[in-house]
Write a sequence for this structure.
RNA sequence: GCGCCGGUAGCUCAGUGGAUAGAGCAUCAGUCUUCGGAACUGAGGGCCGGGGGUUCGAAUCCCUCCCGGCGCACCA
């Protein structure tokens, strides 16, 4: 029992461990008191601080099975409970709730263990999983827009969280670098700049997006051109060297623009586009054929899976090979499923795309399962996010010209952050160097955009608004950065070196606002564990926002530098632990902290 | 028509079958001799889309209807 006070790795420095221990103790008590084994005991945070820290409702759940009034059941359980080592005496309230209050000594011990831990109490995964995170996925010769921001930011955050949890993560950029549009682009390149096909240095297509639009216009209005574009696709897919050369030119050109965005957003990702799977497509078809899963329908090779219907109510096929003999993205996605499992040895594959592709991936996964390519021990998940909508509630149209370019959005964010900063410095009469201001505006602007995107539940649709996305007050990145800066300000003002506080078991909780902050600090591992299950980084945003609120409450109510010892040192450590938690949490969202604002 | 998402405060959104449904923004009223005011405190504002059901208990689960978005055969 006493081991609970001793810091031994990750066994006790976390909320997960506390809850797990409580569940076990309750199960034992229920078994002793009422002879019921293996009850699933839900230990929940108290709905109101007046009820303590945690509540257990198992007595209400057992009423029918045991055949006694809930309060009597609760009394029986409490009489058998052994919680003296970390809880005050449990109380029974209302119809039969058992309310728990953690002992301050337990909170202190757990906090000090967390403070001494570079991982802040978050245990690395017992079984590291080889994990593929497929995100971002821009299209060659098209501009990245706000939809790509969602995939990029959400995917990056998921990858960061999995990496921190100790998993072996492969970040893949499934770039749209293959398909029918390349016939059009290559044909247009031949027409307008033939010299570039033999000498890449003569290439001049200005902005690639304009090039794409001119090619598309020609494609739509010139039948002869259209026919040549079709032939280019065939040549490209069959590996014609000149076509491949032209294709590579276009990809290289696009990559420059993508790289710039990734650098701005601090995204690390390995490009493995659709073209990568091209050589693997025939084998996909052959294997499906060998299993007798292919059906010819209107000249196309299809797989039919139960549960998928078209608008006439007829079975909806997954088209593996088109009537003209070409493959499509379903084939590519099946090849990707196989490759990631067989060659990358992934046990977990996370694909982050817009919600409009949910049916497609459900069908692809179903076919993969049917073909025996997707074993039960591999977790294959589509992580969808809501559509970006215009003010009218309709989907943003890529071709309509109304799309906000991602690069413009990021620029605008930095400009706004700078304007806000200048205004504030002016009102405070502060003088700062241009370097400081420019650097800060960059960081705050990008942080604001990322946070705005990550903080809403990814499933929700998303009405695009510069004002909302670039807001700097309320539940925004600057709010959390400010809480972090306040801690650093304390250190500067008091000339305190936080590193000197390490390993001294300094933290002793006294005030209610300290207690409230402390409990929240211990919940980090529980939050991350849940995100690892449901892939909702917005949970981490909520956690960090609440942490900042609780810290500000503490800051308002508890003087730090002016407090007497040992309270002063205890509060310094608590503030530092808050800052470290904010820093870690924000880093998992891809946001870096600053020491001054 | 079928399928998938969604409907919670004026707006944007949280909410794990539990006690009195919460934040932010906006509005109004306060807090500056105290560690940095991008802060803090308080107020108003809700038939949780409607109706049934399951349950000791439902915003949460089931059924049904209404509204919105998206998808539904060779684009990705």
């Amino acid at each position: 029992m006493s081991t609970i006070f001793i810091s031994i790795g990750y066994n006790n420095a976390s909320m997960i461990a506390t809850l797990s221990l409580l569940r076990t103790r309750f199960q034992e008590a229920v078994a002793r008191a009422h002879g019921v084994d293996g009850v699933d005991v839900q230990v929940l945070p108290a709905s109101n601080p007046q009820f303590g820290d945690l509540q257990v409702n198992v007595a209400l759940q057992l009423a029918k099975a045991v055949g006694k009034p809930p309060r009597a059941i609760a009394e029986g359980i409490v009489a058998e409970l052994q919680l003296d080592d970390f809880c005050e005496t449990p109380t029974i309230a209302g119809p039969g709730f058992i309310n728990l209050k953690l002992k301050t000594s337990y909170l202190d011990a757990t906090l000090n263990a967390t403070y001494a831990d570079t991982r802040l109490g978050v245990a690395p995964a017992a079984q590291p999983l080889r994990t593929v995170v497929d995100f971002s996925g821009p299209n060659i010769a098209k501009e990245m827009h706000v939809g790509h921001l969602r995939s990029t930011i959400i995917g990056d955050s998921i990858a960061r969280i999995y990496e921190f949890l100790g998993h072996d993560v492969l970040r893949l950029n499934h770039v749209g670098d293959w398909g029918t549009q390349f016939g059009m682009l290559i044909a247009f390149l031949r027409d307008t700049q033939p010299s570039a096909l033999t000498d890449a240095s003569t290439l001049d297509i200005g902005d690639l997006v304009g090039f794409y639009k001119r090619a598309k216009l020609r494609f739509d209005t010139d039948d002869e051109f259209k026919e040549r574009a079709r032939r280019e696709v065939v040549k490209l897919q069959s590996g014609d060297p000149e076509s491949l050369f032209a294709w590579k030119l276009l990809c290289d050109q696009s990559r420059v623009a993508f790289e710039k965005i990734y650098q701005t957003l601090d995204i690390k990702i390995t490009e493995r586009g659709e073209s990568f799977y091209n050589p693997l497509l025939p084998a996909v078809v052959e294997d499906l054929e060998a299993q007798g899963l292919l059906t010819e329908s209107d000249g196309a090779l299809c797989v039919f899976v139960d549960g998928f219907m078209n608008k006439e109510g007829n079975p909806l096929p997954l088209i593996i090979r088109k009537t003209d003999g070409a493959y499509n993205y379903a084939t590519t996605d099946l090849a990707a499923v196989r490759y990631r499992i067989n060659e990358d040895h992934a046990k977990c594959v996370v694909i982050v795309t817009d919600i409009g592709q949910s049916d497609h991936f459900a069908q692809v996964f179903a076919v993969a399962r049917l073909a025996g390519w997707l074993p039960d021990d591999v977790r294959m998940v589509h992580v969808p996010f809501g559509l970006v909508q215009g003010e009218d509630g309709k989907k943003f149209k890529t071709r309509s010209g109304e799309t906000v370019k991602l690069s413009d959005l990021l620029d605008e964010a930095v400009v706004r952050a700078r304007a806000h900063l200048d205004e504030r410095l002016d009102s405070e009469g502060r003088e700062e160097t241009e370097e400081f201001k420019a650097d800060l505006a960059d960081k705050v602007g990008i942080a604001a955009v990322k946070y705005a995107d990550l903080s809403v539940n990814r499933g929700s649709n998303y009405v695009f608004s510069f004002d909302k996305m670039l807001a700097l007050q309320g539940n925004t990145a600057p709010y959390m950065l400010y809480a972090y800066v306040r801690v650093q300000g304390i250190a500067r003002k008091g000339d305190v070196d936080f590193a000197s506080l390490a390993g001294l078991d300094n933290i002793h909780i006294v005030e209610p606002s300290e207690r409230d902050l402390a409990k929240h600090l211990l919940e980090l591992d529980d939050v991350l564990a849940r995100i690892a299950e449901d892939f909702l980084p917005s949970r981490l945003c909520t956690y960090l926002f609440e942490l900042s609120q609780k810290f500000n409450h503490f800051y308002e109510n508890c003087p730090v530098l002016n407090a007497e010892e040992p309270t002063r040192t205890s509060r310094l450590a608590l503030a530092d632990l808050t800052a470290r938690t904010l820093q870690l949490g924000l880093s998992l969202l891809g946001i870096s902290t600053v020491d001054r604002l």
Summary: The first strand of chain A starts at residue 43 and ends at 45. Residues 1-11 of chain A have pLDDT under 50 and may be disordered. DSSP finds 20 helices and 14 strands in chain A.
